[in-house]
Amino acid sequence: MVVHQIAVQQGLRHRLYQELVPEARESGISRINWLIIVLVLLSFVSLALETEQTLTSRPGWQLGFDIFNVVVVAVFALEYVMRVYVSGLSEEFAGFRGRLYYMTRFHSIADLLAFLPEMIVLILGGGMPLVALRVFRLFRLIKLARFVPAFDVLGAAVQRAGSQLLTTLAMALALVYVSAVALYFIEGVGGKQQEMFQSIPRAIWWAIATLTTVGYGDVYPVTPLGRIFASVIALAGIGVVALPAGVFASAFSDELRERELAKLKDRVEEGDAEAGVTPDMDKT
Asked: How many CA atoms lie within 13 A of 74 on its CB side?
């Protein structure tokens, strides 16, 4: 009887592992993970609708939002517990220390923050504004990264081009500061002494809006020298925006190409294995 119970428990645990861990499946997304994806998307729709006062002012709609949020929090809490439970099947997270390590990983922390703050408020009742905790629902977006390969590719591309992107960011920040200082002296101290250029922090807003080519038009130079300098800064802003975009596009393209080559290599090796061809036979 004891042996039978252990076998059933292990079988259930393995089935949960295959349902919850995307890497445990050869292809496709499990039904449980599809449910999680749908709930994440619906929670974002609910978050948007809850900010519409014409809906929340109606008791029926508000009750529906409250019930839905309770259901989502309960499902995500159960999912988190099950993921910790089945994580021990992986050698990396085996044992008590392995599970603790799993719980400190980025995705696990995001899973916890996706439901725990709201759960605490729901359990304890009033005292803390539930509205202020809605921002934690954005962590649910990270849950989708497990199932959408594009997120993984984007993360790998950012990591690949990290040093170049930091370099372009440093250049952009330096140019913003230099532009703000220049307009402070041209328009704030001299010229028409505009209020929005009377300090460097105030001029930084104009520099950011100009260098990012947004150009709101709420702040602008009026002196001839200020306009000439602003024109140069606006043209430089085109390069500031285009440079990191080009770096990231190149890294993204390289990452996709390497992944396709890796898939092609795996298919070739699988085909050779099915045909009984070994690496030594290929050399001969």
From this structure: 8
Report the C-alpha gap between 283 and 277 in whole angstroms. Answer: 11
Output the pLDDT for position 142.
83
- Tell me the pLDDT tens digit for each residue of 6-25: 343 457 788 888 888 877 77
- List, as one string, the DSSP characters of the chain: -HHHHHHHHHHHHHHHHHHH-GGGSSSS--HHHHHHHHHHHHHHHHHHHTT-HHHHTSHHHHHHHHHHHHHHHHHHHHHHHHHHHHGGGSGGG-HHHHHHHHHTSHHHHHHHHTTHHHHHHHHH-TTS-TGGGGGGGGGHHHHHTTT-HHHHHHHHHHHHTHHHHHHHHHHHHHHHHHHHHHHIIIIIISTT--GGGSSHHHHHHHHHHHHTT---SSS---SHHHHHHHHHHHHHHHHHHHHHHHHHHHHHHHHHHHHHHHHHHHHHHHHHHHHT--HHHHH-
Contact, 79 vs 20, CB < 8 A? yes
Residues listed for the chain: 284
